[in-house]
Specification:
flat; 15 helices
Length: 377
Amino acid sequence: MDVPPPASKIAALSLGALPVSCALNLASALSHPLGVALMSALILGLLLVAIYSLSHGEISYDPLYAVFAVFAFTSVVDLLIALQEDGYVMGFMDFYTKEGEPYLRTAHGVFICYWDGTIHYLLYLAMAGAIHRRKRYRNLGLYWLGSFTMSILVFLPGNILGKYSSEIRPAFFLAVPYMLVPCWAGMRVFNQSRAPTCCTPNMVQEEQKKGLLQRPADLALIIYLILAGFFTLFRGLVVLDCPTDACFVYIYQYEPYLRDPVAYPKVQMLVFMFYVLPFYGLATYALVFPGCSWLPDWALVFAGAIGQAQFSHMGASMHLRTPFTYRVPEDAWACFFVCNLLYALGPHLLAYRCLRRPAFFLCSPTPSPPAHHKKQH
């Protein structure tokens, strides 16, 4: 499938991160943290000006086009950071990881950069292409919103609370717009009209009359959500230093990464417990009782959030930058991967089910009043 012209334009602009980062890496003026922050802000400002001059029509139609263009540029930067920290490239972002955001050199930082440089980058190109063609991108936007928000919810508090709290530099405050963008973008994405469904009122009524035993896929999802909810609660208790034997065995023999002083895994488990666990309960309710029209949208949001979180968590648990004592033991690899892959896969199956057969979640059609016929005399 051909990439739409605006996506190609944004891709070309984003690839400008390669020569820019290489040139800045050679600049001796960027050996000071404040210089790194000011230069980063200047580059982003010039990039916004260039995008506005090249794509005024698209930005007038939907201002999020400019956001996706800038974030596509930063996604390429993040991919360079990840590749450099793993030794695949050299001479690009040394100055930034040393003087700007040194916590990006952690295992968690490397994997959120990989996710941003691949999944988010493709989403930005796809959504920008949809804006140019005046088409909907609501589903893509909801998935991105969940993924982006989860990344911020874990990464920023982890930087402040973990062992890298003393390494916070002025460049950290460039993340402030990143905290505001999801609020504004989320409102715009949610306010977009939904794609029309092919479900007739009769189909909706017929689907909503079915009991749970007549919907085996929904029954399986409910069982999954209950088990995933218990797993979420259990890992939340583990990072809260629950004194039970089960928690002690798990944190030392299966996921010692939860003890890592970088704080990212602890924050991640707490976010799961306080945000994902209630969603699992509400989703279970929506799969039992018909007419919960909010579930398809929020299933996409949480699928993106949990996908990003599990990718970063699983990768960091095994990465060489994680101290050996906190990595997953070799004899626990199978259990660790099965549990965490299922935990990441389930929300995506739920979102697919909601989008594939939405009739059960649509509001019940209002029956039309009976026609009144005049009496014939």
